[in-house]
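Researcher: I need the complex structure. Ligand is LQRPP26V. Inputs:
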Amino acid sequence: MAAPTVVLLPVWAAGHLMSMLDAGKRLLAQSGGALSLTVLVMQAPTEKDRSEVAAHIRREEASGLDIHFHHLPAVEPPRDYVGIEEFVSRFIELHADHVKTAISALTCPVAAVVLDFFGTTLFDVCRELSVPAYVYFTADAAFYALLLRLPALHEEVTVEFGEMEGMVDVPGLPPVPPSCLPVPVMDKKNPNYTWFVYHGRRFMEADGVIINTVAELEQSVLAAIADGRCTRGIPAPTVYPVGPVLSLSPSPQGAEQPHECVRWLDAQPPASVVLLCFGSVGFFTMTQAHEVARGLERSGHRFLWVLRGPPAAGTLQTTDANLGELLPEGFLERTKEKGLVWPTKAPQKEILAHAAMGGFVTHGGWNSTLESLWFGVPMVPWPLYAEQHLNAFTLVEYMGAAVAMEVDRKRNNFVDASELERAVKALMDGDSDDGRKVREKATEMKAACRKAVEEGGSSYSALGRLSEDIRKGAVRTSQ
Ligand SMILES: COc1cc(-c2[o+]c3cc(O)cc([O-])c3cc2O[C@@H]2O[C@H](CO)[C@H](O)[C@H](O)[C@H]2O)cc(OC)c1O
Ligand SMILES: O=c1ccn([C@@H]2O[C@H](COP(=O)(O)OP(=O)(O)O)[C@@H](O)[C@H]2O)c(=O)[nH]1
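Model: Output:
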C-alpha cells in the first residue's frame, strides 16, 4: 500500500514556497519512507510567479523523492483587495472546493494537511474530511506569539496601536514599542489587520504549528506560547520548532559558477565586507539610494550592495535597478576599489557563506535572518514591510545579534546617510563594543542553529515528534 501522504498547500511566494517544501522534505527523510508528500499547487496570480513556481517544481520532480505535485484548477483572483495579506488570505479561501476535491480523490491515506499561515480558512475543509490540519509558519515564534495574542490585544487596546500609551505585551519578549509592530497591525481599519486577527484566532484550531525557528533562539517565547500566556490561559496547539529550514541546494544549472559577486568577494580580506540586500520586495527611490551611497562612502568600509528598482505595475517583485539613474554622479568610480553595486538578484546564501563577509544590512525577512545566523553574520536590520519591524526588534533587543539603526516609519522607512554610516561603523569597526557583542552573539547562534539540526538536536527531535504525531493521525479520505 502507498505510504500515507502529507498534503502541503504552499503560497507561491519564494519565501513561503521553498521553505514549506524544504520542511516537507525533511519530514519525509525523518519518516524513513513511512510518509509521502503531496503538494497542492495553486496557480500563482502573475506570469512571473507562475514561471518561478514551475521552475521550482521541475527541480523537485527531478530529485526522485516521493513528492507528487497536483495542480489545482485556477480561480479568479480577488480584484478589490487592499494589500497582500488580504489578497493571499482570500485567494487561498477561494480554493476551498478544489482543495476538498483534490484531497478526497487521493487514493492513499492522508496523514495531515499542512497549510501556509495565511490559509487558516481551510481548517473547515480539513474538518469536513476529518483530516488533521497543521500550519507551517515561515517566520519566527515571536511573530506567531504576537498573532496568537492579537485577538486579545485588539480588545485591550481600544485605540490604534500607534496612538497607545506604553508598550505592547507579547509574553516571552521584552516589552514591545508599538512602533515595532508589523505593518498590517498599524491600521485597525484595514482589512489586512482584520485578516491578521482572524488568523491569530483560528491558529487555535490547528492540530499543530510547525515553526521555522530554533528552540534555543526563542526559548522564552516558545515557553510563553506553550503555557497559554499568549492565549488568555487557553492551551495553544503544540509547536514544533524545526528550523532553520534553509534551501541550501546548489545554484540552478546554467548559473554562472562562481558568480561574479563571489569572485569579487574572493579578492577581499576576511570579514571586511558589509552586504546590503533587501529581499524580494525591497527597493529604493533615488533619494534613498543617494543617502545609502553617501553613508557607505563615509563609513569607509567595503560593501556589496544589492540595489533593486521598483516593481512593474501590478506586481510586488522588484526589477533590475538602473544604476545610472539611482546612484549619485561619480559614486561607482570613487568606490570601485571598495565596493560592488549589484543591480539584479544576487546569490545571497553563497555571499553570506563567504569568508569576506563581516556584516549584513538586511530588511530582516525571516529567511534572510536565518541565513545570516546560519553563517554567523551579525546584522543591522532595516525593516521595510510585512512583519520585519518586529523582526528588527527581536534581533536587536531579544536575541542581541544585530546593531540597531533608526528607520523613519513615517517617511517610508527612510534612513539618512549619517545614521547608516553610524550603524555600519558600529557593526564593522574592529574597536566597536556594539560590533564585538553582536559578532559574539551571531557566532553563538550559528553554533546553536547547526547543533539544532544535527541528530539529537532540538529541531531534529521536534521533527521526529512531528513525524510520529502525523503518522498516528492518518485517515483514508477516498471511498
Ligand atoms: C506576511 O505579510 C507579508 C508578506 C509579504 C511577502 O511578499 C512577497 C512577495 C513576493 O513577490 C515574493 C515573496 O517571497 C514575498 C514574501 C513575502 O513574505 C515574506 O515572508 C517571509 C517568510 O514569512 C518573511 O518573513 C518576510 O519578512 C516576508 O516579507 C509582503 C508583505 O507586504 C508587502 C506582507 O505584509
Ligand atoms: O537578491 C536576493 C534577494 C533575496 N534572496 C533570497 O530570497 C529570500 C528572501 O526571503 P526573506 O524571507 O528574507 O524575505 P522576502 O523576500 O520573502 O520578503 C532569501 O532566501 C534570500 O536569500 C536572494 O537570494 N537574492
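Model: Summary of the prediction. Residues 14-15, 277, 279-281, 306, 345-349, 365-368, 371 surround uridine-5'-diphosphate (ligand 2) (CB under 6 Å).
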